[in-house]
Amino acid sequence: MAAHTLFKRLIIAAALVTTFLGPASASAGPKGDQHHFGDDLFVTGREVRISEPSADLFAAGGVINVDAQVRETAHVAGRRVRLDGQVGQDVYAAGYSVDVNSQVAGDVIAAGYRVELGPTSNIAKNVRVAGRHVVINGPIGGNALLAGQDVEIAGPINGSVEIRAREIRFVPGARIGGDLTYYTTRQVDVPAAVIDRARVHANVNPGPSLAEIVITVVMVLAIVLGTLLLLALILALAFPRALQRTRRVMSAHPWRNLLFGVLMMGALFGSVAVLAMSLIGIPLIPLVLIVIPFALIAGYLTTAHAIGSKLLRRAQDANGGLATFGATLLGLLVLLVLGIIPVVGWIIGVLAVIAGLGAWFGVWFAPRPPQTT
Predict the structure, then answer these.
(1) What is the DSSP letter of 11?
(2) DSSP per position, 42-93
(3) DSSP assignments along 277-342, one per residue
(4) I need a labelling partner for 18 at 20 to 30 A (CA). Which of 7, 114, 262, 302 fits?
């Protein structure tokens, strides 16, 4: 709910700012492009310092520094946001870094990579903050809902606190008047000076252990390899003669074969866009999406068979299903070993798929390929 409220407010604020002011001007000066409507102030710019008091403030841009008093609500979004002036109601702020050093009579809702309530800040009501790094230095009069990669509390909080983070730290000056509920991956040592431990509610989820991760990875690899082997067996038993022809096509004209493979790849993925543009073809899109992965695997296994046949010269002219399967297995092993080479491994895999698809294209449209090896 807090994130929804923040982004709804900021989207509305950004829409108002851009509507009244248009694109930010590089030569707008330190005050940015400004527009007054009643007592409200709309500001945008690459680097803006706001020193003029207003009722409601709507500011968006690169670097936003708010030094002036905002009698009602401040809506601020930018790459770097800093609020130093007093705010009479609420603060809605978002940016890469958000620093609030203001006396805020209402709530603070903020999001960013790093969000800090500075030591001179004083929030009268509630705080809802989300970011990778969250630091609370100033006092909070109400409740605090904090979420981030790591959260540090160094100031007093009169109400209850809920924290969701990987790392939670309490430094001297931290104090919680209500309950503390935290969700993290390991138990947190909460000093007695911060809160009575009877009011601490820990929810620790350490995540999967190393053994569970290893087992999961092994199971996934086993399923993938098992599927490849099954499809290789089916391909070898069903099309032994066709695989021999694809090998000859790949050997006779390798560069033309790669060109055919690129055309086949384009036809496979381009067919989805073509079918989507016609009402009649739309029902066929799910069928094409099912066919595409099997076609890519068939191309990969076809190249594997060609490699294995070259290594097993006895299998080059063998038309039996088991001999074809054996050659495919050997070639598959070679491709898998090459595939783990950093940087170039995935390129080899893509070329294997393209070459295999091109060979099938050549077999279909050139029924009498050269018999040379």
Answers:
(1) H
(2) EEEEEEEEE-S-BSSEEEEEEEEEE-S-BSS-EEEEEEEEEE-S-BSS-EEE
(3) TSTTTGGGHHHHHHHHHHHHHHHHHHHHHHHHHHHSGGGSS---HHHHHHHHHHHHHHHHHHHTST
(4) 114
Pair 176, 194: CB distance under 8 Å: yes
d(CA 235, CA 16): 62
Asked if residues 369 and 362 have their Cβ atoms less than 8 Å apart, the reply is: yes
- Alpha-carbon distance of 292 to 271, in angstroms, equals 10
The domain ranges of the chain are: 2-204, 210-365
Say what the alpha-carbon torsion angle 90, 80, 112, 8 is, to the nearest 10 degrees. Answer: 50
Contacts (Cβ under 8 Å, ≥6 apart) of 89: 71, 72, 73, 105, 106
* Degrees, nearest 5: CA angle 336-342-344: 75
Q: Read off the tokens for 313.
A: 């010269």
100's enclosing H/E stretch is: strand 91-100
Cα–Cα distance measured from residue 73 to residue 137, given in angstroms and rounded to the nearest whole number: 22
The DSSP bridge partners found for residue 98 are 81, 115
pLDDT string in tens for the chain (373-residue length): 455 566 556 555 555 555 555 544 433 455 567 888 888 999 888 888 999 999 999 998 899 999 999 999 999 999 999 999 999 999 999 999 999 999 999 999 999 999 999 999 999 999 999 999 999 999 999 999 999 999 999 999 999 999 999 999 999 999 999 999 999 988 888 999 999 989 999 998 877 778 888 999 999 989 988 998 999 999 988 888 888 889 888 888 888 888 989 988 888 888 888 887 877 778 888 888 888 999 999 999 999 999 998 888 755 555 677 888 888 999 999 998 998 898 889 999 999 999 999 999 888 765 554 454 4
Nearest to 137 by CA among 148, 151, 150, 125: 151
